[in-house]
């Protein structure tokens, strides 16, 4: 396998203590004017860069260091409070954010008095809107506050059109309003604003990062390739920056680059966790993408080793996130290797009512069908029914139901349900990353049609899947097999 050496060769540059080398050269380049003390500037700037790179824990630590050096540094409290809002991930901890803002004062008015410039008052007010403290924002849901915050940031952008930090955070606020999943209109609106920052500063971590998010789907990914190629060098000390490049690579089916990016991301993350005395993440976002990359290049043994480390963690005291990742990683491994018998080797306990077990039960049901154990398939389908309802769950349930109908000899009924299921999945927003529905529906439809000797229909199904998941290995192999059989 070819190696993306430009990524792998930079690993030694950041296997160091974060206090040892100036972060200016390791997290990107920004300019954020403020009224804080000179002694606190480096920490504050580092905090803002970490915010742009979605390294929220390190951002909060940097802002607290700035506060220690200047207790009246309003923007340092602003930054720490902002670290508890995670756009795109659709996460927010309002209680934690308000505990920080309250250090400046108990009311909006008291906090406004602490800011010494109008720009800082305006930025601080943006958080009052975001966290529901203004008259207009009170009693609104998080989603409604996200929309209101975006409108406020738009006003700030119009007021300070040449301010790159305000523009970047405005672009991010637009992305943060896509509450129903990827919306091309929203994402392109964000990109239009972010390009101004990118064109002026090719080292701005936020511009590169948020543009990658704007373009990380198969249709628009070519537009994000320049940012993906640049971002790893813009912020080599940020694990998330290293990973983010693979959002574009994966959307384009660039598997070797996807693998290399997530090796680097994993290693940077684990180095930082060692410094902080934290448990190493062996069952998380970057390892999930890494394993998926290996499966797409056919390197099943490497994928197995990634899954094995995750499995070892699951046998101890895993977090909910670790259990979710094991469930989806197990699913990808079994589905993409088609090693159905191995489903019995990767076992764990899941509460039927917990979303983390969704892919666990689905994969177990699918493997049981493949091995002719319909009773076990029904048992896992029943467990899947107990998982909280979602479009993904409904699709996976219908996939299993359609296969069971076919196994019962009800071919037309089962095939019709599977075709409807494939259409339903195609209408969902595209995942930015490995498919969370571990056996994509059009690919499954292609497999079924192939088994029924309906080769032309199978080819069409695989082609539809490849539009959604370019160069996905199982769809490519299925299409090639169907074409070969159709030509006989």
UniProtKB/TrEMBL annotation:
Signal peptide interval: 1-22
The record's InterPro entries line, in alphabetical order, gives:
TPR-like_helical_dom_sf, TPR_rpt
Report whether Protein biosynthesis shows up as a keyword of the record: no
One matching Pfam family, short form? TPR_8
Mapped TPR repeat ranges: 439-472
Q: Which UniProt keywords apply?
A: Coiled coil, Signal, TPR repeat
Q: Indicate the segments annotated as coiled coil, or none if absent.
A: 445-472
- Where does the source fall among the domains of life? Bacteria
Know the name of this protein? Answer: Tetratricopeptide repeat-containing protein
Q: Which species does this protein come from?
A: Gracilimonas sediminicola
**Species lineage, top-down?**
Bacteria, Pseudomonadati, Balneolota, Balneolia, Balneolales
């Amino acid at each position: 396998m070819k190696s993306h050496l430009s990524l792998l060769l930079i690993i030694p540059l950041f296997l160091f203590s974060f206090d040892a080398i100036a972060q200016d050269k390791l997290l990107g380049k920004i300019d954020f004017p403020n009224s804080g003390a000179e002694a606190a500037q480096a920490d504050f700037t580092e905090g803002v860069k970490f915010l742009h790179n979605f390294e929220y824990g390190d951002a909060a630590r940097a802002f607290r260091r700035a506060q220690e050096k200047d207790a009246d540094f309003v923007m340092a409290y602003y930054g720490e409070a902002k670290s508890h809002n995670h756009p795109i991930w659709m996460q927010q901890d309002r209680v934690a954010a308000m505990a920080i803002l309250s250090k400046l004062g108990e009311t909006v008015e008291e906090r406004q008095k602490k800011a010494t410039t109008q720009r800082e008052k305006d930025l601080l007010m943006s958080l009052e809107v975001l966290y529901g403290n203004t008259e207009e924002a009170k009693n609104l849901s998080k989603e409604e506050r996200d929309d209101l915050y975006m409108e406020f940031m738009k006003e700030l952008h119009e007021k300070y059109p040449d301010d790159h930090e305000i523009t970047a955070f405005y672009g991010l606020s637009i992305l943060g309003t896509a509450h129903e999943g990827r919306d091309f209109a929203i994402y392109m609106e964000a990109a239009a604003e972010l390009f101004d920052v990118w064109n002026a500063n090719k080292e701005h971590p936020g511009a590169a990062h948020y543009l990658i998010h704007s373009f990380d789907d198969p249709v628009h990914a070519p537009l994000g390739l320049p940012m993906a190629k640049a971002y790893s060098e813009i912020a080599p000390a940020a694990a998330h920056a290293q990973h983010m490049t693979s959002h574009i690579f994966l959307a384009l089916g660039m598997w070797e680059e996807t693998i290399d990016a997530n090796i680097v991301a994993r290693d940077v993350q684990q180095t930082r966790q060692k410094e902080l005395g934290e448990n190493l993440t062996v069952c998380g976002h970057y390892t999930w993408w890494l394993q998926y990359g290996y499966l797409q290049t056919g390197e099943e043994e490497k994928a197995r080793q990634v899954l094995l480390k995750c499995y070892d963690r699951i046998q101890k005291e895993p977090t909910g996130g670790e259990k979710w990742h094991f469930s989806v990683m197990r699913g990808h491994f079994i589905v993409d290797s088609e090693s159905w018998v191995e489903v019995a080797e990767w076992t764990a306990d899941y509460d039927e009512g917990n979303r983390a077990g969704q892919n666990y039960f689905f994969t177990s049901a699918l493997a049981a069908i493949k091995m002719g154990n319909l009773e076990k398939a029904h048992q896992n389908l029943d467990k899947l029914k107990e998982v909280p309802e979602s479009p993904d769950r409904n699709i996976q349930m219908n996939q299993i139901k359609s296969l069971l109908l076919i196994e019962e000899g009800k071919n037309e009924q089962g095939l019709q349900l599977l075709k409807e299921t494939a259409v339903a999945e195609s209408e969902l927003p595209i995942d930015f990353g490995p498919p969370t529905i571990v056996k994509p529906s059009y690919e499954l439809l292609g497999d079924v049609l192939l088994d029924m000797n309906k080769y032309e229909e199978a080819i069409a199904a695989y082609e539809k899947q490849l539009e959604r998941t370019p160069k996905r290995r199982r769809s490519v192999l299925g299409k090639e097999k169907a074409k070969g059989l159709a030509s006989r």
